[in-house]
Amino acid sequence: MENMKNFGFGRVIEPKGFIPIAAWKLDNSLKIKKTEMRIRVQSIKFEEGNFRQLCNVCGYEENKIKSRVLDIVKKRGKLHNPSTDSGGICYGIVDEIGEDYKNHEKLQVGDAIICLTSLTSLPLYLEKLGDINFNYGQIEVEGYAILFETSPVIFAPKDVNRSCALYAFDESGSVAKAYHMAEKGKRFLLLGSGLLSILIYSAAIRKSAGKDCRIVAVLDKESMASLCEDDINEVLKKYVDKVYVADILASLQTYELIRKKEFNDTEELFDVSINCANLLGVETISVLLTKEHGILFFTNLINNYNMVLLFAESLGKNINIISLEEYSQDFPQFTIELMRSLKNELNQINHIYNKYDVISRLPVRVTELIQYNNVKKMDGYIFASETTRKMLEDVLNIASYDCSVIIQGETGAGKEKVLELLHKNSKRNMNVCIKINCATIQANLAESEFFGYEAGSFTGASSLGKQGYFELANNGILFLDEVGELPLALQSKLLRVLQENQFYRVGGQVPVQVNVRVICASNLSLRTLVKEGKFREDLYYRLNICEINIPPLQERKEDIVCLAEYFLERYNEKYMQNKKLSEEALLEMNNYQWPGNVRELDNTVHRAVVNCKNAVIGGEDIYNAINSNLYGTEEKTEVKENKLSEVNARNMTLNAILDNHEKAIIEEVLHNEGTTRKAAQVLGISQSQLMRKKAKYNL
Length: 699
Fold this sequence. Notes:
By secondary structure, this protein is of the alpha/beta class. It is globular. A six-stranded antiparallel β-sheet has the order 6-7-3-4-5-8. Strands 11-10-9-12-13-14 form a six-stranded parallel β-sheet, sandwiched between helices. It has a five-stranded parallel β-sheet with strand order 16-17-20-15-21. It has 28 helices and 23 strands.
C-alpha cells in the first residue's frame, strides 16, 4: 500500500479503490503529504483531442471554454475530459516538496519544471484562467497541482520557447519512437493537420536516417487554409522532400493523388506511415498508402484503431500497426536536443502562428463523442430542445466514469432511456445491466433477493442456493428503480456493499466479492426523503456521486413535436397506416401539460392512431385521446362535471369528493394498463402505494 500512495492512490475520493487516472474525483486540497510535491501551475498544454473537443463544443468562444475547463476541474479535482478520456500536461514552479518525497531530479522550491504526467491522474486546482493560444492548444492559468514520486518531470529548458516546448513534450514519447523506427533507404509518409507536428516528426526521422531516406508530408488543406504554401515549404524544406496540401478527409482522391505523384501509379507504397493528424478519416489513407508488411504508427491518443484493423483485413493487407508510445526516461532529453536543433524553424512557426488567432477550426475528431443528432438515431433518444441537449451532454459525460449515479425525474420522463445511454456509453457496455424495481420487492424477501442465500438457509430455500441481484450484476450495472421504496434495514446493508464491495449471502459465512456500478432512479426527491427520515443520509451521499435530473416534458416543449412524430411513425409502421398529424393536433399537444410525460405522450399518439378514422389526425382527436388517458374512452371531459354534480347532490364532504375522484381514476388506469406496476407508473406513485389504495377502495 505504501507504494500505491506514491502514485496518488490516497488522493482518490470516488470511487474508492480506483487508481487516480480512472477515478471520478480526486482530492485536490492544498496541503501536501510527505511523499508529494506541489507546483504553481502557469500553463497547460491540452491533449489534442481534448482541446479540439472543447473548442467545438464551445464554438471557439474563449469564455465558454474557460468556464468548461473550470467546471471539469471543480467536479473532478483534475483535468479529465470524460468525452475524450484525456487531459494534458503542464508547466509550473515548484512550491513545496514533502520531506519524504523521493527527489530524483534534485528539485528545489522555485524551479521551473514541465510535468510530463497526464493531468487526468494528478490533483489540480485552478483559480483563474488567462489567455488561450488556439494554435498551440494551450492556456495560461493560476492554480496548483499535486505531484507524486512516480510523476515524471523535467527542468523547463530556458533556451526553448515555452509554447513550443510544451507542444513537443506532449508528443515526446511518439517523437522518440519515430526516431528509433527510422532507417536509411526507407520511404516515410507523414499525415498531419498541424505545421508544428509535421516539423517535429520529420526532424526526428531525418536526425536518425540522415539524407538517405524520402520523407513525404501530406497536410490537411482545410487546416492550412490560412497559410500560403510558400510559408509551409520554407519551414519544412530542410526535413521534408515533398509537401502536399490536400483534402485528406477525401481519402480515395488523396490516395490516388499521392500514388500517381510519388509512385507513377505503380504498386509501390510507403514503408512507414506516421499519422499525427487528429482527423476522422485519415486512418483510411494511412492504410491505403502503407505497403504490405509496412509500419503504420498512430501518434495521437485517440484513433479508430479497431476500424483500421478491420479495414486492413478487408484489403487483405498485413500491416504492423503501432499506437501511442508509452513514457521512457530517455524521451525528455531527446526532445530537448531536438527542439534546440530546430530553433530557427520554431521561430518561423511562432511568427506564423502569431499572425493568426486561430489557423484552423478543426472538426471534432473524437469517436467517443457522439453528435446529438446521432445519439437519437443510435440510442432512440428523441429530442429537439436545448434543455434536453444539455442533459444528454451530462449523461454522456458521466457515462465514462465508473461511479454511482442517481437519475431523478417524474414518472414517464424517460429514466430507463437515460439508463440505456449510460450503459451503452460506459466501460461496462459489454456486461449485463440488471434492472430492479424496488417497489415490487416484498420486505421479508428483500435481503435474499439482493444478496442471495445459501442452500437450506431457511424453510423453502432452494437446495442449490441462489444468487442475488448483486452477484448477477457482477462486473456490470445494477439499476435500482424507485430506490426510495427500499426498507431502512436493507438500505443499511446496501450501504455496506457499496463501501466494501462485498457481502454475505443469507446463511453464508464467506464474503462474496463483487464489482458493480449502481445506478438508481426515483420519481420522488431523495433529498426530501432524507429530511423526512425515510432514506439514509449516508446512503444518499454514497449513491449521489452524480445526479441526472430529467426535466418534465412541460419544461422542454420543443421535444413534443419530434417525439409525437416519432411515435406516429412507429405506430404507422406497426398498423401499416400512413396517418399524419395536423397543425391543430400539434398545437393541442403543445398546450397540454403532460403530467405523465413522454409515456403519456406515447400513449396519446397510440390512442389517436387507433381511434381516428381519417388519414389526418386532428386537434379534436388528440383532445379526446388525452381525455381518455385520464377518464376512459366513454366518459370524456363531461365526466368531471357529471361526477361533481352527483356528489354535490349528496352533500358529500371535500375528502369524500376527492376520494371518489381518486377511486374512479385508479379504477380506470388499472383497467387500461392491466398490471399494478404499469398503472403505478402512469399514476406517478409507487406500486406499494397503489396496492394500499386498491385495498382502501376495494378495487
